[in-house]
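Form P-L/3: holo structure prediction, ligand zinc ion.
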Amino acid sequence: ADRITFLGIESSCDDTAAAVVRREADGSAVILASVVEGQVSLHAPFGGVVPEIAARAHAERLDHAVEAALSQAGLGLGDLDGIAVTAGPGLIGGLLSGLMLAKGLSAATGLPMVGVNHLAGHALTPRLTDACAWPYLMLLVSGGHCQFLAVEGPESYRRLGSTIDDAPGEAFDKIAKLLGLPQPGGPFVEREAASGDARRFRFPRPLLDRPGCDLSFSGLKTAVLRARDEVIAAKGGLTLQDRRDLCAGFQLAVADVLAEKTRRALAAFPVPLLAVAGGVAANQAIRAKLETVAAEAGATFLAPPLRLCTDNGAMIAWAGIERFLAGETDDAGLAARSRWPL
Ligand code: KG4
Ligand code: ZN
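OUTPUT (holo model):
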């Protein structure tokens, strides 16, 4: 195929994102522009993403994000070969804004439109950054998702296991809240954990006693809450060191569980590559354990740069190109789906 250039639009959660990605004739990818307008400060006062606020922010900012991406790429709509847009899963208000914009642009220009599953966007990122060959194992660990995916082609995913309750990022955020740390909590918990004693509190390793690759994180959160309350009851408050030790114990439990389940997933699906995506993949302690597990299984470990691990438009543009090359396009009937398992 010739070079193909796509606009990608992402608005499924709390990032308004647009990007322009080109696939060269040799299959390599170039990110010509990637604009991500986060909404952290809008939601921070509420301690979590508020769907109504997110929907309004996407509606207000999407046009600007798309214009900024095109202008950074130095391209006009006429230089594109297609438009990719996240059609789900996610918050319905944001998804609708993105879809309406994509449909309008497609109708006005005659460009093909391709609806993309947000999870496929994450799952295909190793092919955007490193031209990885099929098949590979993807561990997706974010604030909203936690699953092992056997990736065998642009339309071929098999879920080997997933969380039965919270996602790990959600657990990091809740622990941060319990300990009075800012949101989103992951990076703050990691920073505290760095100078904590991970062995002072013995937190559970949920579901390790059961076979398979499913995960659970909500019991861990309850255990941290109980330990915190015991310390407060005994001493009348938490010292800085108490807080660091609680963070360290919690983070080690998450890392241990992810490592063991990854070991099992690689045993069930023995492939030469383990890739991670999602905000939690930024955690150095977790990364280090996963790297060891991959090495033990003789697999390469790949973690895309953080800005491509978290939500972005480039992964949507790329997934759209892959679907397009597989012969898939959508029409004006494309619907937003708040739930859409891969
Ligand atoms: O992928 P992402 O940007 O958004 C979605 O959830 O889709 O992930 C955000 C999540 C948040 O829960 C945040 O606390 C977590 O990733 N996170 C981390 C770290 N950095 C971000 N968790 C643990 N350690 C980190 N360094
Ligand atoms: Zn995501």
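COMMENT: The CA atoms of residues 185 and 312 lie 20 Å apart.
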